[in-house]
Amino acid sequence: MADKAQIQAAIKVQGEVVRKLKAEKANKEQIDEEVAKLLELKAQLGGDEGKHQFVLKTAKETLTGKYGEDSKLIYDLKDQGGELLSLRYDLTVPFARYLAMNKITNIKRYHIAKVYRRDNPAMTRGRYREFYQCDFDIAGQYDPMIPDAECLKIVHEILSELELGDFRIKVNDRRILDGMFAVCGVPDEKFRTICSTVDKLDKMAWEDVKNEMVKDKGLSEEVADQIGNYVSMQGGMDLAERLLQDPKLSQSKQACAGLMDMKQLFSYLELFQVTDKVVFDLSLARGLDYYTGIIYEAVLMQTLPAPTPTSQEQNGAVGEDAGVSVGSVAGGGRYDGLVGMFDPKGKKVPCVGVSIGIERIFSIMEQKAEASAEKVRTTETQVLVASAQKNLLEERLRLTAELWNAGIKAEVMYKKNPKLLSQLQHCEETGIPLVAILGEQELKDGVVKLRTVATREEADVSRAELVNEIKKRTSES
Amino acid sequence: MADKAQIQAAIKVQGEVVRKLKAEKANKEQIDEEVAKLLELKAQLGGDEGKHQFVLKTAKETLTGKYGEDSKLIYDLKDQGGELLSLRYDLTVPFARYLAMNKITNIKRYHIAKVYRRDNPAMTRGRYREFYQCDFDIAGQYDPMIPDAECLKIVHEILSELELGDFRIKVNDRRILDGMFAVCGVPDEKFRTICSTVDKLDKMAWEDVKNEMVKDKGLSEEVADQIGNYVSMQGGMDLAERLLQDPKLSQSKQACAGLMDMKQLFSYLELFQVTDKVVFDLSLARGLDYYTGIIYEAVLMQTLPAPTPTSQEQNGAVGEDAGVSVGSVAGGGRYDGLVGMFDPKGKKVPCVGVSIGIERIFSIMEQKAEASAEKVRTTETQVLVASAQKNLLEERLRLTAELWNAGIKAEVMYKKNPKLLSQLQHCEETGIPLVAILGEQELKDGVVKLRTVATREEADVSRAELVNEIKKRTSES
Hints:
Chain A is α+β, with helices and mostly antiparallel strands.
């Protein structure tokens, strides 16, 4: 964000613009637009630090100051009015803005939509600049850790049901991290930047992380080593209990608050039967600025073969995750302050949520399907309406409409006289399980020959019974 | 599109840029980027008019020359590289581009996504600058009018099942329009612009449309009147047959081809039982350039109360549809040339599709729901897990997890000790039909008190039977 003096200077200039337009009796629309800009500048100046005021537009300003060092990945654009706009970076900030604009204090919802990052894409691992996210969030003032535990249960359920192989859900708490930094002797103003460095531990060795802390970010070796000691710890409720007794860490009130909540969380996770995959991991740091409490990240344990880097990737962040696991497929945490940043009065709505990387997950599922040579059915069609002889297009269309009207997913080939063989082949290729075959004889007898593609069995079914028979056969399979 | 001389000049300059970079041994990425620009310019120059060549990027150039006079509604943006980009105007052009890029000659799919128009929004009637479209398209070389008839059947089915009131689907054919313009004496180069004017007949009186043809577009009164005679005609298969006998129109080969297909179409529509709502209407013109055959548009007959125009609308296109019907809710047609425009060799893939204005439809459904004071259920939750006494949070969470694991949509309040009354009220407000109530006694007896919210009936159900009982009760309702 611009500093105070800059904003005050801009307000002065903008005030002149408005006065001039009013003096010239310019048209109302133009004046309104300039007044809006003035109010926006004044709002930016706002009250104290914790109480930013925004004119609520889906604009660059909405995204500024929420993503920490990741902000460089925001896609900027200018609209025709010259305003600075950005493409949506994630679904969390827009969700918080939506709650504030509509004064919603209480909601649970999911949202699947596209987001954009100016990152180095890695197609082979399902990493693109434009990609879908799938978010689930619970907003509202509730008793501690209950919605948080539900989010973890949901991640556990999704990753288990999709059969993506073994996985872990790492959890930590922003307050434990901050408390740890404080007792290790990291200066307050360096918490966020050191947090970003810790966040790299899943991709870099401790030695390199330490190097960055000492050489780039100015920590003493001693402080870095103390951090290194803590961030190597992993466990469950037992670790939270042990750290509550830690002579150093227990001196931090906020670390203790985080550790008490962590214990509470694990007790709920036991009830939800998901502790087998959840690990309290002090190295988990997530780079985003908006988290205030629990944070978590799900990683798949399976390792993919190292892909050949493309020339584009060679120019970019090579080595970042070449040949290692697909890594994070979901992440999230608690962000109790974000909605308040968009509310004119700073009214807070506590939130906790999770973001599922569905494109990464899809890319893994596709690779699995390819590897297993399993045939993926590409259609939901239950039955193809076919004919054995020529000149039966009209009869085929009539029967197709009958089936559609009865709620059957039916298909017909768009040819006047398709060969029976090509109709049957179409079913085999696309995985349509049934064929309803019409011929002169069948029409005379008021029946349809119903064929099961897999077994090639055929049986005459009366026209009146056809819908029920198709429903019966497709519900069995 | 820029003219040939401009492009040739640009190619010369760009050639110099590339040569200079190569001489300087600039980095590969930079050279590649400039070479790509050069190739793009050369592609624009391309071969003959009907065989445009594009470097396939999702950029402004993709959208240029596809939308006729509607092009002014395209949102332009610049990316950080300074390239001219646009926001997606519809889903048809991106679909055609996708087919060409992936060499797909055969597909049937739907797509729901956002599109953007720099139009005057009219919130009260569900018209926004950013809105969802829902498209269904059939691509491939097939026998005439079969996929076209299926598209109309789908529109008929959607509008019937949503119970939006009476509707009509107007159909016409670009070839009939062009033939009509030709036999009326409209010069070739004015077909498209006169087509745009005819397209306004659903919003303007004939007198005003004629005025525009004569005063703005330079037709003679006589020519305009001849057009006026045709565009007042409406009918079904009978009209197609009559026009095939029309001494003037039957002189146009392309009009006859269109009329023959129209007859064919109506014969299929009869088999699909949808002729009650489909009208062959010669005034239907749709402004977009890419249609080559049949075109159609669905309109609701119901009239909404005239909303009070907002100040924003007053500045804009007031009167355009103030107090009239909500108008078009779906439209589409055949576009056999569009895919070929994106293919390097101009290879054509015939397509027909329909676009459903889902936000308009939603806005109508919401107004209907409000008017009928019908309670809309806001959740899919089948059962709330509740407790009658204090200190049962853990038991509630345990039961909730049991139900989730069995595939039941269950919810639990995120409070340690919620009052039973507030739990029951939550169900009434959100429409959750069942409550599973736990108490000390129920836990001792191994049962759950299952309450039906609507009737307030309660019955003890054994824990082992609970999942089946919930499934049974929710499938009944």
